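Running this now, will post back.
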Amino acid sequence: MRLKQSNIPALTAIMLSLVLSCLSWSASAQETHYQVDLSERATQTVNIEARFSDVTGNTLDFHLPVWRSGLYLILDFVGTVSGIEVTDGNGNALPFEQTAKSSWQVTRPNARSGDVVVTYRVYADSLTDRTRHVDADHAFLNPAAVFMYADQLRDEPIEVSMDLPDGWRAASGMEQPDSGRFVAPHFDRLVDSPIEAGTFDLVTFEAAGMTVDFLIHGIWDGDEERLASEMAALVEATAEVFAASDTGLPTDYYLFILHSGDGLGGGTEYYNSTLVHTDPRAFWDEDRWQGFLGLMAHEFFHTWNVKRFRPASIDRYDYQDINYTELLWVAEGLTSYYDQLLPVRAGLVSVDDYRDQLASAITGVVDAPGYSQDTLARASFEAWTKNFHRGADRAADKPNRTVSFYSQGGLLGLVLDLEIRRISNGERSLDTVMTALYDDFPLGGGGFTYADFRERLAAAGGDALADQLDGWVYDTQPLPLAEALASIGWVLEREDTSEDRVQVSIDAPVRGNPPVVSYARLDGAAWNAGINAGDELIALDGVQISNGLDVMLRRYSPGEEVEFTLFRDGILKTLPLTLNPVIGDFEVDVNEDAGETAAELRSGWLGGVEEDEE
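Update: finished.
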């Protein structure tokens, strides 16, 4: 329709009014702005101002999270917070009170829209748990550990501004429009975006359609070419798992943050970044480097599994309480499966070494006493109270009664992958299931349930395999590891351990003089003899033990009875003990007579990497 000339001024006025209205809304839109002051970094202190804009209502509740993602443990960061003050936008003090251990409520004299400003100090000396650490040389801030949030503004835009010292720069997975200024769409993205500031090294490369920054704070070998090449290979191998996805890449930018220092280890995944710790020796020691590659693969795989699709019960985090789920064997366990496999597919770890890694993982799971005591679903649900809990309660008995949803979940992933490949003649795999979860359950869409996972497993591997899954997850049915490996021409068997013939089944370290028992293995020789955690071992058959228990036991044969002398609560005791035979560790070998079908399945599984290409 053609407009009459006389209507144009009126239309222009309407459009101008709409534009001005939008601009007015944008200028007054609610958001949270954090100002980070590092002037007291030499004393490991950070001063933070949290400005909650355009607050409405008579009161405002604000909180500091009690945990961080990636660690299933209540940490209560508020313990290092002090000097809290609350004012309005004009600097006038507002009354507030603490309503819970990590929550406060401010009272506003009127309900009109206005700013609420909270200032406080954080003592930042917690590097090993990857939460907050500031000193003269750098600043690491895990947002969940340092930034307070308001219920009213949790889903509103975020801005973080840092006063960077001369010569410093900052990095995060968040957008950084200006040096030291970050923006995020909401608080959930903020807590999923750790910040590192300082004079770090930075290696940048392209891989799988992503721009990748690799940040290093600490000691490393400086070999940028090797680092970029091998990390790029891992990124590409991981993206290949989801190559059939209709969703596309989860991000076009990714940031690895590495802290390298003596005794450091572990990592945590985030929305489009990860924080990883390593001992510097990993750069010079090949075995340690392989472990480092596995850690990197684990955290990067989480960019899909957990950071894009996650269990329904934790689709939206509760930052003030435990977040229970029975599906950590998917989130962490299946990721642990891929973290060993992907370096092989990337050509960074030999197939021989991978077989050794598998054998070690199988020994650790199958020979653990909890293997027949606990289920993957229960271990997932109890992660916060048993697997990660640091208290003394049940500590000595945990290895006897629980399983690891990481390692046992990883072996379940191995079984599922190889079974799907066998059933489908290599047409489908666990990659198929993971891709379906990625496409069907985007972050924030409600998450997936066990039934959802089971349905997609059945679509890839059949109803019978889905039925078996119930027993492996909700019961203690043993995993058919030997049968699964046989389908690709590998043989699972025990190693010959003729040197050590007996054991007392004290699996935890016994150190010191006298050595102190950490725990006695369920139904083992020490357990049946009544040896307890905390017992000080003095003598074996009247001979002082010191630190040489393993060597002393080599003079005995299975079934012999010996006497252990020990101190318990200051009282000397002597206990008879019947020695058990040593059970050899597992090993994985190649069955040279397995046939062409097994070889083809193995080749597809390993991404085309074969033993003769090592």
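The CA atoms of residues 4 and 205 lie 57 Å apart. More later if anyone needs it.
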